[in-house]
Each structure stands twice: as structure tokens, then as C-alpha cells.
Amino acid sequence: MKKTATLLINCPDRKGLVAAIADFLYRHNANILHADQHQDAAENLFLMRVEWDLEGFGLQPEEFEREFTPIAQQFQMQWQLKLSGQKPRLAIFVSKYDHCLVDLLYRHQSGELACDIPLIISNHPDTQRIADFYGIPFEVVEVTKENKAEAESRQFALLDEHKIDLIVLARYMQVLSPEFVKRYPQRVINIHHSFLPAFVGARPYHRAFERGVKLIGATSHYVTEVLDEGPIIEQDIVRVSHRDQLEDLIQKGRDLEKVVLSRAVRWHVENRILLYSNKTVIFD
Amino acid sequence: MKKTATLLINCPDRKGLVAAIADFLYRHNANILHADQHQDAAENLFLMRVEWDLEGFGLQPEEFEREFTPIAQQFQMQWQLKLSGQKPRLAIFVSKYDHCLVDLLYRHQSGELACDIPLIISNHPDTQRIADFYGIPFEVVEVTKENKAEAESRQFALLDEHKIDLIVLARYMQVLSPEFVKRYPQRVINIHHSFLPAFVGARPYHRAFERGVKLIGATSHYVTEVLDEGPIIEQDIVRVSHRDQLEDLIQKGRDLEKVVLSRAVRWHVENRILLYSNKTVIFD
Amino acid sequence: MKKTATLLINCPDRKGLVAAIADFLYRHNANILHADQHQDAAENLFLMRVEWDLEGFGLQPEEFEREFTPIAQQFQMQWQLKLSGQKPRLAIFVSKYDHCLVDLLYRHQSGELACDIPLIISNHPDTQRIADFYGIPFEVVEVTKENKAEAESRQFALLDEHKIDLIVLARYMQVLSPEFVKRYPQRVINIHHSFLPAFVGARPYHRAFERGVKLIGATSHYVTEVLDEGPIIEQDIVRVSHRDQLEDLIQKGRDLEKVVLSRAVRWHVENRILLYSNKTVIFD
Amino acid sequence: MKKTATLLINCPDRKGLVAAIADFLYRHNANILHADQHQDAAENLFLMRVEWDLEGFGLQPEEFEREFTPIAQQFQMQWQLKLSGQKPRLAIFVSKYDHCLVDLLYRHQSGELACDIPLIISNHPDTQRIADFYGIPFEVVEVTKENKAEAESRQFALLDEHKIDLIVLARYMQVLSPEFVKRYPQRVINIHHSFLPAFVGARPYHRAFERGVKLIGATSHYVTEVLDEGPIIEQDIVRVSHRDQLEDLIQKGRDLEKVVLSRAVRWHVENRILLYSNKTVIFD
Predict the structure, then answer these.
(1) Which residues of A touch C134 (CB under 8 A)?
(2) CB contact under 8 A, A38 and B243
(3) What pLDDT score was predicted for residue C1?
(4) Which position among A98, A103, A165, A228 bears the catalytic label?
(5) Does the UniProt entry include the keyword Metal-binding (chains A, B, C, D) (predicted)?
(6) pLDDT (tens digit per residue) in C159-208
(7) Do residue C39 and residue B32 have CB atoms under 8 angstroms apart?
(8) Segments making up each domain of chain D, as ranges
(9) Which of C82, C168, D9, D176 has the fewest CB atoms lying closer than 10 Å?
């Protein structure tokens, strides 16, 4: 595996922007592996992801900021530099439904997800055994109406202790408080079991069944303060018919949820997602 | 082409039902070509579609009712008999967007739709030329806020004159009055340019674009009194990305709308749709 | 869970067939839960699946054959009766790629597959740990060019010992001998990692990548004597682009393989598959 | 509509490449609208598409070559410059099946295809009327086994006379000679009615039906000397079941063919397709 650096840029669109970035990388001898950009004319916005080989690159990571800052300031860039050696640290939140958890753990073990998973938090003890199988610390934090603030404090402590970068709600059946969401902006990914914005809220399969839809879906999105309204990362659907009962929808939906959530997690940990105006750009 | 009869049945589920129907058809020497049934345990409902060759069948169509009524009464059936020789008569309503109209007319001419199309009604003269090309009477009925009731009266007169069985709203940009809907129960098919129930109402592509969805859809449904709430006949979706601008959504959506509407029309004219609890059963 | 019986019928299409079956079931007081039939006019073939509640049914399972045989003979039926209480016994064959195995075991444990899995056979010891996690006997039978006949003898002994009804090749990287295939007609399901008949044989992802296809697929099928030519049970595809490297195809393909294989296994164990002319009818 | 220029580049991947191109465009005051690039590490290849507004651009189109040549030579580029004002001229070849023709003509008229269509060539007179409706010259060139060379000479004359840039085979039922193909390298697009490489050659729907596939597909590709082996531009599929007879496959397939061919034509005329190693890169 090559050691690489990935630069993510978000700024107003202006002439000379690409020339400035390309010239900077060339001067420091970067061997570019992938580059993607997106322009939004309506918003006058420029978004870029560029990944290069660190071998032969003329700057040490710690020198990068100093050297790049003049360009960043000139073009009013928001930017981040990610190094492939620094794997993001991910916590999975889960309740009783374990299919997304099992799926993520298997993908992680088989090398599909370039992250560390040092923590699983659940409000039920049911998934302890699978966490043990994969050797991942498993913490039960019970949540009730009464103890919600306390429970979240306990969760914050665990997240801090394990230096968590990204929280994945793998069918976690609790709504996070506004404080929680504010503490982890664009760092909480949820899977909702409908093609949003259809069936926002509870029991989407039940409502899809009652409405008689011919497709069911799943949506992964970043969690924001308004329920199920955060930026959509990925969606997919599967066809259903009158032959499908509610249980069939739920069963077919599980396969969707696993795939849609795992794509979102993978893109996030590979730094492929940029955000603007409540939308995502996926550089895949 | 064989001459066939199609029997559609909707009744409470009871033992002996299939035996009674099968025995009736056998006694009258029916050569069954297709049979489909659906049971809904929760609603205790039985739905059936059976199609047979009229050649050799022992009853004249006009005798069927008399002979079948005892069985129908015994099992409390709602039933309809459709003869392949009696093609349904279809009116297409259209405004300025002509892609669904053009698509339906081409499919009709190429033999894909087993119906007659004796009438096109539009609130704009724009599509006259394509109607002429296919030799179909084209009537302009202008609709304004002020003249809506009058305009619908004129439409009713045209529909009556042409003995219309089914109305297809092919991107017709007017909302029908409750009176209109009541006059044609389960006989008006609309195409809505979203995967309902997402983006009910106006400008669904604009709202899909703003929401940043990763899929756009189209839905064909029967029109009922509540806007976009009627029984869904068919839905389909296509994938979009951040590279797609609003115009791209609209363009990709056109291909969906055409296919989704034409499937609904075909299934209706082939008597493949049964309705219950605001849902459709499609015997395809 | 209700105790049910499922009758599968395959015979020449003749008038009176449905009446005879329906009447038989009615006379014995069967409460029909699901019935599906398919007619192939070109082949003059009639296929049926009917499932009924055993509660209140007037025949004991052991009486069924005697009572049904006259009808079966009259219409030259091939038929099978399956009881929900008699779960099929399934053996999984696997090599080193474990994603399909892990997926099947999880689905089995979560109640999605109505079968027993008393045996896993592998030519490598790698997947022992996951077999142990789910508590399923795991047998290593090494296969080389030289010992193939011997190895299959050992496999036959294990399959006999565990009374196996169905063998699932979950990315098992060995070709079965003609003797093996003959011993288990329509009882071996394989997953092939392409949309057959494209890319029959070895290394389909490599060849798909070289060919520059825009879709990759997976196919589950019954194993017959000609490689990858058996009746197709299920297929699905996923879109790829020039941005996908070979490893991306392999990774995306894994998700397809799991879903496509698991659907085939489920339909088989639920007695939803009928076969004719090297094709499958899926009563789903 | 903005007047734009699109530059397509294909060259060995080298450091400094993007910097050189971006600097060149910046120095000449280009307002970049879209830029996409693709690197193939295995082939050490760099492909780029960049489109900019001609308003304010510092070079006249006729000066571009002179100014850009030094950079092009330094990096061994193959390159093309396309101006939005110079619409490609397209000829459609058709036989009796008219669905793709009708679809392309409608899309062209509704502004979806940025090209001129000055010529339709058919070996049958059947589609004359639709050509007339859209006001497009229609030439019948009969093709038999005996007159093939002559017929192609007549076609060449027509193609020359109408200064044709791109030939679209819209279900044209004749195989082009190697001379024809050689005369229009990467300038003939065909639609094949299967998901290639499955069912290369004649009667793919018949063979798909016999094989019992669960998906049917369509593939648009550039025509090369080996039948159905040219670079794939686009593919799509639709699900079929045992309920679908051969005619259903053909009918469902028509909808695929139209969409898959029209996407390929649109991408070609918008200069979104780059070719290497018998593969396409689609900058969509």
C-alpha cells in the first residue's frame, strides 16, 4: 500500500485556481494519483479532491500547512489534508437489530474499510458476542427517557477516551440530542430505512407497506439537528410487489441498509465526501 | 390474435372458492390461458384474474352473467368480464410537455397498447401537429382559474361523445376538480415526476435537486380526490449525482415518466390491475 | 409459525386440471394460503405451487400420496409434497473467499433461511473460526488434481452421514466431477460471479474489466454437467465505470454474490423453484 | 447558450501535466466550466476533458493550435479541440424496426441532442413518413448479398455529400464491411440488444429466452472490425421472469435500446467519450 496524502478544497470558483494548486503540487514534486473537481455555477463554488503519492513529495506533512497557506488565503479556501497513515477512528452505535453492525465488522476485518473501530456502544447487551468475535470493545449504555442526558455524557466520555473521529448509527434506535449533534458536526452517519424524503421518522417500512409503494429504499446521511434532514450520502432501492408482505419489505430492506450504510462509511473514511448547501459531493 | 375473455374477481377469501371458479370454467369448456391469484391474509381477501380462449367456450358472452351469478353471489364476489374484442377507449390529456404523449402515440401505433385512442384534449394548441401525424382528433380546451367549471363541462361532453373509458394525464398541468375525479373513479391515470410519497405536489424535480437526493423517480397512479395520494400502479427510479444539474434531472426524469406511465396504461388496458385498500395488485 | 404443506406440480396442460386439484383440496378441507401457477403454451406445460395450512386439513401427510395418486395419474403429473416441519438439510462448500459463507450463516441464524445447516466442507482450514462461532461442524477435505476422486468419496460420506438435501457452493473454487453432479441432480446451487452467459468459466471479473463493461453481475444456478450452463435461478448487476479498477469490481461484486446466492438458497428451501427445459420458474 | 470550447487530451501520465494545461488556460484567461480527468496507473495514461467559456478567452479558435502545440509536443498529447458552435453532423442508418429512429428524432427535435441530423439512410422505405414529419432527407439504399459493395459506395457518396461526422446504427440490420468500418474509425455507434459480451451476434432475445436469463440488456458500442467487440459506451438491463414470453423480452428490450443508444449518442456529440485499450471513459 502506497502512503498518500489527500487534499480536500472548498472555495469560491475563480480563474487561476486549478493552475495555482497544480503548480504548487508540481513544484513540490507530487506524483498525483487521482484528482477530481466539481464546479457549481449557481453557487459559484469550486470543490476539489486530489490524492498524491507521498514518496518523493518535497514537503513533510508538518511543513504543508505553512507552504500552502498563502494559496489557501488568496483563494479563500477551506481545506483539509488527510494522510493515509492516519486512519480515522470509528465508533458504531447499535441497538438490537444487528445486521448493519455485523456487516460493517465483516467489511472492516476483510480490509474494505480503511479505518480503526475501537468502540461499539449499544443500549442493549445483545450484540456483545459478535463484538467479542471481532475483538472490539463493547460498551452498554442504557438510554431511557429519564437518563438521556446522563447517558450521552457517558457516551461522550467513551468517545473522547477512544479518540473517535466518526460515529456510525447502525440502526441505533435512539434520537441524538441537539447537543450531541452539535458536538460532532458532519461526523455522525445514520442509515434511514426509506428513500428520503419519503417516510421521514418512525416505522418507514410499515408506512411504505400501507401506502402500497412499488419500491422501498434506504438512505445514509449525515445527522443534523432536524431529524432525517441531513445531507444525503447514498440511497438505493429494491422493487417490491403485492406479493411482498410487511416482513418481506423488512427483509429486503435489510440488504439495502447494509449496502447503503457501508458505502457511506467507506466514502467518508476515504475522504471522498465534500459538503455544501446540505448536499454531498461524492468523489468516487 | 386469439379472442379471449378475462374475468376479474375480488371477494372475501373462503374455502372452495377456487374449486367453484375452476369447476365453472371447466364445465363450460374454457381453455385457460393465464390464471393469477392473490390472497391477503390480513384483509381476508381473494383476488383473481383468469383469461381463457373464447374458441370452444360453451357460453356466449351475453349468457355469462346469468350463468356465473349464482357462484358470484355465493362467494360475495365483485367481478368483471372483459372481452379482448372490446378495446377500451382512451383519452389523453396533455399540456405543453409532449414527451409522454409522443411516447404513448408511438406505442399505440406499434401495437403495444391494446386500446383505441379516439381523443386528445389539451389546454394548449402546441401538440396538434403530432396528433395529426397519428390521425387522432385533437381538441383544445383552455383552462383558466375563472373558467374551470365550464372547461370541465366541455371536457365531459367530449369524453361522453367519444365514449371514453380511461383518461390518461400525460403531464397535464391542471388539477382535476373533485367532481371530475368522482365521475371517473379508477379511470384516470396520472404520471407524477417523483417517487411518491416523496415530493407530493408541484415542482418535484426542483425540490429533489435542492434536497440533494441520489435517486430521482416517477410514479403512475390512479387519481383520487387527494392530490398524489391515489393507488400507486408503478414506480421507477434513476440514479443521479452531484454532476447532475436541475436540467439533467428533468431530462433523465423524462425517460422515467414515459416508461412508468406507459406500463400503467398497458396494464390497465390489459385488465391486469386490481384495487383494494388504496393499493394495486398487478397481475403481469 | 403455521404448519403448512406445499404441493409442487409439473404436467402437460389440460382442461380440468385446476378444477381437479382445487376440488381435491376443497374436499379435504384445505385452507389455501398461497397458490401460483404458470402455463407455457409453447411447451404445453402446466406448473403449480400451492401451499395450505395443515390445521384442519382432512388428510394425514402419510395418506396424501394414496389419495392424490389417482388425480396425479390422470393428468400425468410429476409432483412433490413438502411439509414445513421437515426442514431441508444444507451443506455449504467453501474455499478461502468467505463472504458468501459468512452471509449465509448470518441469514440462517437470523431466521431468514428455513433450513438446517449441519455441515460445512472446505478445501482450506481458513473459515473454521466462523463455523465455530455459529456452532456448525466444519470438515476440511483437501482437493488436489491427484486425489480428486478420493476427496469426493470423502465428501459423499460426509453428505450421507449428515443426510444432506442441498449443497451450496459458496465460492467453492473446485469443479465438481460429473459423478458428483449426477449424484445430486438439481440439488447443487452455485454462485458464478458474472451475469451468465457472459464470462463463463474462470476469472470473470478480470475479463469484465478487460472488456470494459459498464455493468458487472452475479448469477446463481443449479449445477449441471456443463460448466456454468445449468438453469439460472437469479441474477443481478451493479453499475461500474472507468473509475472502477479491478479491485473495485471484485469488491462491488462481493455484495452482488451474497445477495444473489442467498435469494436462490431461500427460494429453494421454501420450495419456490420449479424446473423445465433448463429454465427455472420462481414462485416468489 | 454559452459558446464554449472543449479540449480532449490523451497522453502518457507525467508530473507537471495538469499544471501546464491549467497554466496555459489561465494565461489565456479561460473561464473553466467543467474539468474532468482520469488516470490509469496500469497503463500510465492520462485523459482529460476541459470545457471553458469562449467569452473573454484570449485566443481565437484558429490561434489555439499554434499556441497549444508546444505543450502538446512536450507531453506527447493526442488532443482535439471542439467548439460548441460546430455541431457534429449525424447520419442515422435504419432498417424496419423504427423505435430507435423515432426516439432519436424526437430527442433531437426537443433539444436533447446537440447535433445536426441531415441524413437518414435505410435499406427499406418503411420509415420515410417519420423522416418527413421531422423534415430530414431520407435515402433508400437497398442492400443485398450481391450489391453490398455498390450499396456501400452509394452510402459513402451520401455521407460525403452531407459531410457526416458520426453514423448511428439505429437497429440497422446489415453488417458493415471492413472497408466501411475502416473509413469511419470511432465514428460508428451501434446498439446491440443484449448485455455484451453475452449473446454476441444474431437473435440475442431469442437466445436469452432459451437460456432462461433473469435479466435482459442492451449495449451501445463503437463499431470495429470484429462484430460486437468494439468499445462499450453504455449498457443497461431490465429484469424479466418466467412470466415473460419472447415477445415480452422484445418489447421490454425496445425501451432499453432507445435509452442506451440515445445516451451514447448524446455523450459522443457532447465530446464526453475518450477511448483507450478498447475501453471508453465517459466524462458525464
Answers:
(1) none
(2) yes
(3) 77
(4) A228
(5) no
(6) 999 999 999 999 999 999 999 999 999 999 999 999 999 999 999 999 99
(7) yes
(8) 4-83, 89-282
(9) C82
What distance in Å separates the CA atoms of residue A234 and residue A255, rounded to the nearest whole number?
14
Does position D7 have pLDDT exceeding 80, yes or no? yes
Asked whether the ipTM of the predicted complex exceeds the cut of 0.90, the reply is yes
Which amino acid makes up residue C171? R
Instruction: Flag if B19 and C26 touch (Cβ within 8 Å).
Output: yes
Per-residue pLDDT at B209 exceeds 90: yes
User: Does residue D33 sit at the A interface (CB-CB below 8 Å)?
Assistant: yes
Q: What is the pLDDT of residues D49-96, one digit of tens each?
A: 999 999 999 999 999 999 999 999 999 999 999 999 999 999 999 999
At residue A1, the pLDDT reads 77
How many beta carbons lie within 10 A of that of residue C53, not counting itself? 16
Question: Residue D1's pLDDT is what?
Answer: 76
Are the C-beta atoms of B188 and B222 separated by less than 8 Å? yes
Asked if the Cβ–Cβ distance from B19 to C16 is below 8 Å, we say no
Which residues of B carry out catalysis?
228
What is the average pLDDT across A242-256?
97
The verdict on a CB contact (< 8 Å) between A102 and C106 is yes
Rounded to 5 degrees, what are φ and ψ at B265?
-65, -45
Cell digits of residue B276: 383494494
Instruction: Give the residue among C197, C155, C196, C187 at the shortest CA–CA distance from C174.
Output: C155
A72 interfaces chain B, CB cutoff of 8 Å: no
Q: Does residue A133 belong to the interface with chain C, where contact is any CB pair within 8 Å?
A: yes
All residues at 6 or more sequence positions from D166 whose CB lies less than 8 Å from its CB, including other chains = D88, D89, D90, D91, D115, D187, D188, D189, D265, D268, D269
Three-state SS at A267 = helix
The average pLDDT across D173-201 equals 97
Mark residue A160 as left, alpha or beta (left: phi above 0; alpha: psi -120 to 50; beta: remaining): alpha
Q: Are A251 and C133 inside 8 Å of each other by CB?
A: no
pLDDT digits (tens, 9 = 90+) for C107-158: 999 999 999 999 999 999 999 999 999 999 999 999 999 999 999 999 999 9
Distance CA B65, CA B78 (A): 12
Residue B198 near residue B233 (C-beta atoms within 8 A): no
| CB-CB contact of B257 with B213 (8 Å) | no
Distance between alpha carbon C69 and the CA centroid of its chain, in Å?
Answer: 27
D99 CA: distance to closest CA in chain B (Å):
8
Q: Given this model, what pLDDT does residue C227 score?
A: 87
- Could you tell me which CATH class the domain C89-282 is placed in? alpha beta
Classify domain A4-83 by CATH architecture: 2-Layer Sandwich (3.30)
Beta strands in chain D (DSSP E): 4-12, 31-40, 45-53, 78-83, 89-94, 116-122, 138-140, 166-169, 188-192, 215-222, 232-239, 273-276, 279-282
Q: What span, in angstroms and rounded, lies between the C-alpha atoms of A33 and A1? A: 13
What 3-state DSSP class applies to A229?
coil
Cell, residue C132: 465455530
Please name the helix (run of DSSP H) or strand (run of DSSP E) that holds residue D25, with its range, or none: helix D17-27
B-C C-beta contacts closer than 8 Å = 52
